[in-house]
């Protein structure tokens, strides 16, 4: 994959270039907008990492040019706090994310891996939200109980529901917690690279193998190997994986050297694995190896009590990361979050709040900022009108008729509130 860095600070550009090359990316660089445009025209770029302020042109106009020319290339904005409004504008234009300077290696690589759906990330310990819904508490309790053992655990549940969080929880409470936690997306590794990705390869083993490289089993040795989307693993790789799990040893591609491995396997999938076995898409013997214990992670829609606490956690996390000050969520936004079905689960909740944190103009994040302003009305228009009227009346009463303060709490402008009041017969 080719990454384009657009940055006029030569020292910073060189440092990021080394990080990305070490991570296996091919890197191209430009110091200004004309240079970046030229590179984008001549190369198939997978991601652009661009500064806002450049000696000629700027990162915003570069992004506008890319959008105008139909270049659907993920764009990450880099800028310092003084230029934060420019970063907000870039996100509104379509930039995928924003990185404040100084840029840190781990944060950058994790963000890029996520956007590019790269197969492997070595995780460091993260903060966890103590969820209160009964379904989520049962899952977390089972994860903690199984942690001290070395049982292979398969985590089932819909996409975006937080299956990796459960995997990390198991690792965190295990005796392996001081060793690596390596997350591998099994669905994103090309078939011809599966063996080398998992077991490593020696220099010259195949075209492109210019140095010796470690595989995931060696990287995770002593720790936990998390196989995400394991249901999408090619059948040929299932055979190789089964052998390693049985023998506890492997050979790097192109080598006769036998290496021992000591990893705990945790897997996750949103597939119906028993159906996959019956249809011959997944080996039955491997399934039972991986699923010595199954844990089900519920969807966010099944855990309504968790929505607002999780939203608050993500608000603080993203606000801190982007150095943004806000005070919480407007009442309208809270109601919309509770009514919404969350098809993308916790991942969608985090993404919507990240965007809201960046684009919100008021101290309280509103339903419009979250992109949920029509949610309640779509569910039940009559109830929506009654609830909205009651909500506005209650807030006006609470604020002693202060329309400006009420508008702020609703997450809308003063003008928009007047229009709503007129429509509802309150004015």
From TrEMBL:
CDD domains xrefs: AAA, REC
Q: What is this protein called?
A: Two component, sigma54 specific, transcriptional regulator, Fis family
In the record, 4-aspartylphosphate modifications are located at: 51
| Stretches assigned to the Sigma-54 factor interaction domain | 129-358
Instruction: Give one Pfam family, short name only.
Output: AAA_lid_14
Provide the alphabetized UniProt keywords.
Answer: ATP-binding, DNA-binding, Nucleotide-binding, Phosphoprotein, Transcription, Transcription regulation
Signal peptide (from-to):
none
Q: Which Gene3D superfamilies match?
A: 1.10.8.60, 3.40.50.2300, Homeodomain-like (1.10.10.60), P-loop containing nucleotide triphosphate hydrolases (3.40.50.300)
Response regulatory domain: residues covered: 2-116
Q: Which GO terms describe its molecular function?
A: ATP binding; sequence-specific DNA binding
User: What is the organism field in this record?
Assistant: Phocaeicola salanitronis (strain DSM 18170 / JCM 13657 / CCUG 60908 / BL78) (Bacteroides salanitronis)
GO BP annotations listed: phosphorelay signal transduction system; regulation of DNA-templated transcription
Record flagged with keyword Phosphoprotein: yes
Top-rank taxon of the source lineage equals Bacteria
Q: Which residues form a coiled coil?
A: none
